[in-house]
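User: Hi! Is it possible to get a structure for several chains at once, not just one? Here's what I have:
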Amino acid sequence: MSHSRINLYDFTREALRQQLVRWGFNGMHVRRLWAYLYLELKDSFDDMPDLPAKVRARLTAGARLGLLPTALETDSSDGFTRKYLLALADGERIETVLMRYSGRVTACVSSQVGCAMGCVFCATGQMGYTRHLTPGEIVAQAVHVARALREPRTTVGTCHLLGDKSPGSDAGVRLRNIVLMGMGEPLHNYDAVMQAVDILRDPGGLALGSERITLSTVGVVPGILRLAGEKRPLHLAVSLHAATQAERVALVPAAKKWPLDELIAACRTYSERTGRRIFYEWTLIEGKNDSPEHAYAVGRLLRGLPAQVNLIPLNPTAGYAGAPTRSEAAKRFQKILADEFKLPSTVRQRRGIDIAAGCGQLAVAEA
Ligand code: SAH
Ligand code: SF4
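Assistant: Yes, the chains can be modeled jointly so their relative placement is included. Here is the combined structure:
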């Protein structure tokens, strides 16, 4: 039964060393094994010739490589975005997005199957919560993307996504950034996410350093406070969307549990303890949260906090009727933040919308 076998992607390097020792092997083999897993991105224990045959046999009997088979792969006509529908061992499915903009290769990874937070405009929220992902299932998404980047590909449609260079010479195109902004609420699955982060950061492996990993939360206050005490300095993004409790609850039901004043206090604690600025995300919905008054309210709310605001024009989802803010209104919003509050902001470019790979569009439909 493959399920009773341990998934190697669940293990930090130290835990894997201990596992080898438990099996009666020299823990030193972990070095080679780790390189096979995360540098050479091997997909089979048979393809690890430098490991002693006994170690390989033990791995084959008791362990598995939890690679996630692709159920569906879609390229956006924008030429910069590719979405993978990946199959988990129990038949559940998740989505992972590969983005390649101006030389930066980023994987947007999921932390749960579905999401329990129920944000009204989010396709993942609309599908409800099924389960947490294991650390190995989070890590496997990054491995999946890293492996895809190595394949010399005959590209579908547009070709700059993976093939700036001629086929076979993709060397140098490496996975550089991870955003925990796929399906699910990462701070609702705290321990698994942090373990995955440790594995992804390991300097002898994928080596996605602290500057390269961004975690986005809907505002799980206890999770933010816990993160404030961590030695893992990630970038933190907090999904705000509204500057008053009443308006926020209407969009983000989880705000009932973690009210806005407590959220802002937690953000302040996080920034004070870590010395880090937080990205505040604001999905711009026409006529709902995009007026000048709203911009002033955000500015007042974030006054004194080290902050950058990321404005995300609403992407369409089946379960929500709102429209995205037009670019004029978004610019006006930005100008108020900048001129009146010295608050830097960006407007997220709309990418991957045709394949439902944009923010908040991830669900698991096959079409
Ligand atoms: N659960 C986490 C991370 C995943 S969502 C969180 O909510 O922060 C990543 C970002 O996309 C969040 O800021 C989320 O609010 C935003 N988002 C969700 N649905 C969206 C939509 N339909 N259009 C634009 N942004 C959306
Ligand atoms: Fe969950 Fe984030 Fe979607 Fe809200 S926006 S439902 S927290 S994934």
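The chain has eleven helices and 14 strands. Residues 7-64 form a domain with the DNA polymerase; domain 1 fold (CATH 1.10.150.530).

User: Great, thank you!
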